[in-house]
Amino acid sequence: MKTMIIAAHPDLRQSRANRMLALALEPYTDIHVRDLYSEYPDWQIDVEKEQQALLQYDRIVFQFPFYWYSCTPLLKKWFDDVLTYGWAFGPGGDHLSGKEFMVATTTGGTEGGYRSGGDNWFTLSELLRPIQSTITRCNGTYLPAFVMYDADRGTDDYIAREAGRYAEHVRASHERLTSSVI
Ligand SMILES: Cc1cc2nc3c(=O)[nH]c(=O)nc-3n(C[C@H](O)[C@H](O)[C@H](O)COP(=O)(O)O)c2cc1C
């Protein structure tokens, strides 16, 4: 299983949570981690290069800090630019069929706040539905997301444990991720 991580943090090197998540994947030779903001400082995404890259991998992970209940803006632009009509969806747009996609995000909010009645009202699964719908429209398989809650207040130990859990989640089989026991 070849996996590509598209990390989309505006400043990954200065980040705490997302940097630790990316570091946790370094030992795995079949996982390729990319830093989207440093690859495209001018935001001019090379669509052909990105589409070719997608073809090389079985699983693609979008890793980002949760910003205003959504992904970071360069990743949104990446979706807009790369998932084109006739390539990713629509007639002839079957290049992503059979590929697995996953979101990995870090939040400032606590898990308890992300529920109906909580201070963020909705669950992460609910808030990630636009990305789930995008992937589904493009014939990809959308896997359960990895979420690290409370990323700003969490201790270094907590972040390290969550990074370990991330490495397991990214490498887990489709069957394990979608079974109710994980
Ligand atoms: C512009 C901006 C918007 C944010 N929006 C949210 C949000 O909607 N929900 C939330 O839980 N945290 C939000 N946060 C907190 C970040 O998600 C949190 O700082 C980040 O996940 C920590 O990861 P890092 O250490 O890799 O930067 C926001 C932070 C910024 C800077």
Automatic annotation (TrEMBL):
Coiled coil: none annotated. The keyword NAD does not apply. GO terms for molecular function: electron transfer activity; FMN binding; NAD(P)H dehydrogenase (quinone) activity. It comes from the Bacteria. InterPro entries: Flavodoxin_fold (IPR003680), Flavoprotein-like_sf (IPR029039), KefG/KefF (IPR046980). Residues 1-169 form the Flavodoxin-like fold domain. Keywords: Oxidoreductase. Pfam families: Flavodoxin_2 (PF02525). The keyword Cell membrane does not apply. PANTHER family: GLUTATHIONE-REGULATED POTASSIUM-EFFLUX SYSTEM ANCILLARY PROTEIN KEFG. This is NAD(P)H-dependent oxidoreductase.
